[in-house]
Write a structure and sequence with these properties.
This protein is mainly alpha-helical. It is 52% helix and 3% strand. Strands 1-2-3 form a 3-stranded antiparallel sheet, with no helix packed on it. A hairpin with a 4-residue loop joins strand 1 and strand 2. The longest helix has 20 residues.
Length: 313
């Protein structure tokens, strides 16, 4: 369990988390949301193991500039906790489920243009790693993110044992949605990693490729700070909400779909493979990228109409 809970709900929260873990769920996002419930209960001096309608109303109230998905996550978390409390005999208010369509995020990802990507990696390639050796790892991470569409959390946790240099693949174990998957890697990226491993003498199979001075994997926030500097040097404005590291993943998916369409590939046949490759739980997330692709590149809309008209053979 990642967090320490201190409110009157601490024991039932622990029981709920243990139950979810035993069922095979990571439950990481929900653990933090449960921590928010715990903190609110402490703030309001709640002494009875019971969730009231008033407590729910306070907890789910929208904060300034808060994204829709955060509110959705809070509603979902407190519903689950209330239902769990009722099962345990602690009568609690269960907020009704959100209407159909509420779970669709209003977030629009940033998709890098070809020119922006060129500028980003030109900045990376112009860095003198003899003078700034620590920066090399971050440059390699950015290249992995765009060339594979991996999540940043998956990249920073890569260990030597996860890389197969014979068939150029990464093994991602228990990623989001508890899925294991193999990621094919371009030869150029494999060579970058191989040279970096040799240079840094990272030979233990359990060692992280991208580690800090303590031997742990580097923190995502550290990579993000470096990324912000690269954006500035590349002349790309950061508006406070993006671009983000995760936008490399969005860009990878959109560019891959665009490439397939323009090459005349059968998107219907390839779509399930892209869904599996990206590690999506179902096709809905991947379909979102297909719609985004047609929005960004109107000239290829007619070539994707068959998919959205129900021809998903």
């Amino acid at each position: 369990m990642k967090y320490t809970y201190k409110s009157v709900f601490k024991d039932v929260i622990k029981e709920l988390i243990d139950e979810k873990h035993n069922l095979g769920f990571k439950y990481e996002t929900m653990e933090w949301k449960l921590k928010e419930i715990d903190l609110l209960a402490l703030k309001l001096n709640i002494t009875e193991i019971k969730i009231t309608k008033e407590f729910v109303t306070i907890f789910i109230k929208r904060k300034p500039n808060e994204s829709k998905i955060n509110i959705i996550n809070r509603v979902s978390t407190i519903r689950i906790l209330s239902q769990f409390l009722n099962r345990k005999g602690f009568k609690s208010y269960v907020i009704p489920s959100l209407p159909k369509g509420s779970y669709q995020s209003d977030f629009i990802p940033y998709i890098f243009s070809d020119n922006e990507l060129k500028n980003i990696f030109q900045v990376c390639n112009n860095i003198d790693f003899n003078k700034f050796p620590e920066r090399e790892k971050y440059t390699i991470i950015l290249k992995i993110l765009y060339s594979t569409g991996m999540r940043i959390g998956e990249v920073v946790k890569l260990k030597v044992k996860d890389i197969n240099f014979d068939n150029n693949t990464f093994f991602i174990e228990c990623a989001k949605n508890n899925k294991n998957r193999l990621i094919p890697i371009h030869q150029i990226i494999i060579e970058l990693i191989k040279n970096y491993i040799v240079k840094m003498k990272i030979f233990n199979q359990e060692d992280y490729i991208f580690s800090n001075k303590c031997g742990n994997h580097i923190d995502i926030s550290t990579v993000y700070e470096y990324f912000r500097r690269i954006l500035w040097k590349a002349g790309i404005h950061h508006n406070g909400k993006g671009p983000r590291l995760h936008d490399f993943r969005h860009t990878y998916c959109v560019h891959k779909l665009k490439q397939w369409v323009l090459e005349g590939k059968d998107v219907n046949a390839l779509f399930p493979y892209l869904c599996a490759y990206m590690g999506h739980a179902d096709t809905r997330c991947t379909e979102y990228y297909l719609r985004l692709t047609t929005d960004l590149y109107p000239d290829i809309i007619t070539k994707t109409e068959n998919y959205f008209n129900g021809d998903k053979k």
